Amino acid sequence: MSADPAPAGTRVLVIGVGNPLMSDDGIGQRLLDALAARVTTDDTVEFLDAGTLGFMLLPRVEQCDALLALDAASVGGAPGDLRVFEGADFDEFVRQPRCSVHELGLHDLIDAARLTGALPARRALVGVQPERLGWGMTLSPSVEAALPAAIEAANGVLERWLAANRC
Q1: Measured between alpha carbons, how far apart are the two ends of the chain, in Å?
Q2: How far is CA 2 from CA 57, 111, 118, 162, in A?
C-alpha cells in the first residue's frame, strides 16, 4: 500500500489504523469501511486504510486540515470501551506511553507533522479498548459490540467538522 500525497482539495483525512489479521487490531479498518459507506461527501474527505504505515502517512497528514483516526487504543477501560479524544485531549492522549497497540503509532506521526509545521488544525481519535490482539480475522465479542457506538461517535465528529467548513 502506498501513501501518496492526498488528492487536491482534501480537507479531512479519515484513517483506519491497524492490522485486520490481529483480531481486535482490525477495528480501525472496520470503522473506516462502515463510516465511508455511511457518509456521502465530495472530494473534501478522504477515507484511507492506513494499516500500519506509520511515517508513510506523513505526506497525507501534512496536506489535510483535519485528521480523524480510527483505531484500537489502550483507553484504560474494559474491552470494548470507547473513547473519543479531540484537540488538546487528542494531543495529550497520543503522548502517553502505550496509548496505541502499535510500535509506531499516532504519537510519532503527529510529532513528525508538528516538526514540519503541518499539524492539522483539527485532530481526533475514536479509540476502542481491545480485548485480544493475537492472530485472528474476527473481532472479539466485546469489540464487535462496540462497533455501532464507535461508528456513531466517528460520524458525529466528521459531521461537526464538515458543518463548520460550510459556514
Answers
A1: 35
A2: 9, 21, 20, 26
Could you tell me the CA-to-CA distances from 103 to 39, 109, 137, 139 in Å, in that order? Answer: 31, 12, 20, 20
Read off the pLDDT of residues 107-160 as tens digits, 9 standing for 90 and up: 778 888 888 888 898 999 999 999 998 898 999 999 999 999 999 999 999 999
**13 strand-pairing partners:** 46, 67
Q: What is the CA radius of gyration of the chain?
A: 15
Q: Give the confidence band of 5 by pLDDT, cuts at 50, 70, 90.
A: very low
Q: Which of 67, 65, 44 is nearest to 57 (CA)?
A: 67
What grid cell was written down for 3? 501513501
**Residue labelled with grid coordinates 458543518:** 163
Judge whether 85 and 67 are in contact, CB under 8 Å.
Answer: no
Note the pLDDT of residue 108. 79
73-90 confidence digits (pLDDT tens): 988 889 999 999 999 898
CA dihedral 154, 155, 158, 161 (to 10 degrees): -110
User: Do 53 and 105 touch, CB atoms closer than 8 A?
Assistant: no
